[in-house]
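Please decode residue identities from the backbone states below.
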């Protein structure tokens, strides 16, 4: 499981710009409301930093279908195609989506899944 920690805001209460009525955070973001009215007349203390933790868990895309096969690949024959073979992504991780770039191999190793491309062949 991977975790990503990202700062979500750290407000410097003394950063109120009196001419514009906007406050500035330590990240340089302008807030649209004046801190003086929101925090009781121009607070003199710093707020604690807010942190967002995101956990990404790799889960199989194909939890039940044809699990006895090492990799599920289906082929469709179509007579009216310009290319003899086209591979379409079914893992949703391809950098060239909707075309397959082989990203399913890394996904299958990480999750134990068996998803593979859809191959469309010229008949």
């Amino acid at each position: 499981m991977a975790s990503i920690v990202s700062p979500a805001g750290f407000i410097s209460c003394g950063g109120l710009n009196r001419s514009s009525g906007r406050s500035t955070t330590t990240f340089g973001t302008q807030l649209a409301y004046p801190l003086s009215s929101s925090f009781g007349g121009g607070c003199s203390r710093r707020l604690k930093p807010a942190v967002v933790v995101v956990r990404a868990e790799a889960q199989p895309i194909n939890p039940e279908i044809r699990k006895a096969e090492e990799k599920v690949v289906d082929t469709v024959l179509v007579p009216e195609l310009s290319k003899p073979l086209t591979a379409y992504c079914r893992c949703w991780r391809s950098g060239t989506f909707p075309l397959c770039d082989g990203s399913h191999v890394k996904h299958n190793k990480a999750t134990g899944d068996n998803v593979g491309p859809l191959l469309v062949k010229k008949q």
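Observation: The beta strands are 2-9, 11-17, 22-25, 30-31, 50-56, 72-78, 85-88, 115-122.
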